Amino acid sequence: MPEFTNPPKRKSPSPNWTHFNLWNRVQNVFQEIPQSFKSTISVSGIRATEIYAFSEVLGLTIEEEVVRTLNDLRSHWDPDGQYANYRFVRQAQTFPDVLLSNQDMSEIIMGIELKSWYLLAKEGEPSFRFIVTPDACAPQDLFVVVPWVLNNVLSGSPIVFKPYIESARYLAEYRNYWWQTIRQARGNVQIIHPSGIQPYPRTRDEIADQPAEDKGRNFGRIARMGIMDDYVAEFGDVPLLGIKVSRWRRFFKEKDSD
């Protein structure tokens, strides 16, 4: 039995929430990331057939640098110094990837699930999965995708583009709605949810929703649900060294198959 008979609705934090204005400013700061992002990475000597092997490792480093950029832009999200004891911190192996918290981690204001997307990947769309159960997401938590490429395509430093920003909880609910309703599967569409989950879980907590049947291992592939289609399509015509991203993708796919 599907959980939602109608599509889930986005629910923002209450305007009365103490940190509501901060939450809005953080989203605005993410829009400034492309102009403010500076990377310490410099890559050279990569052949066209090797770029995909490097992109995954580079993506993880870029995510670290996005977090550093957020902290560098403190004056934009904390113009009055109200949050002087807070900073964005990357955490490993649990949800969300990034926390805005005070120094001793005794108070967490919000979380960000941060994903990098290599624009020249063969799939032409983000390939990551998001399988976190909705109960693990606080209303203020965000899901953010940051596209990137090397500035000289096969060499140079990473540059990033306008991010995709969505409510993490809404995305988790929409994923389950899509799985059970929109895709109109004939098999078992049940989703098994972990119990007793709250926002900002511990590393050892089981927080993943699990489909009862998933032969193609497609559960959680956000880019295949249609929700990102317009955003993803924007990048096909982005020029890199005077050549559209879509043409670079075809070039790399042909090289990879040679």
Distance between the termini: 47 Å
Q: What Rg is obtained from the alpha carbons, in whole angstroms?
A: 19 Å
Please give the oligomerization state of what you see.
single chain
Percent of residues in β-strands? 15-25%
Question: What is the 3D form?
Answer: globular
Element string (H = helix, E = strand): HHHEEEEEEHEEHEEH
Count of domains: 1
Helix/strand/pairing category? alpha+beta
Number of helices: 6
Based on DSSP secondary structure assignment, what is the total number of beta strands? 10
Q: Round the mean pLDDT to the nearest integer and report it.
A: 93
3D structure, described in words:
The protein is α+β, with helices and mostly antiparallel strands. The mean pLDDT is 93. It has one domain (20-257). A hairpin with a 7-residue loop joins strand 4 (142-150) and strand 5 (158-160). The chain has helices at residues 20-36, 51-72, 74-77, 168-182, 229-233, 245-257, and strands at 86-90, 98-102, 108-118, 142-150, 158-160, 164-167, 191-192, 210-211, 239-240, 243-244. The chain starts with 19 loop residues before the first helix and ends with a helix.
Summarize the structure.
By secondary structure, this protein is an alpha+beta fold. The protein contains six helices and ten strands.
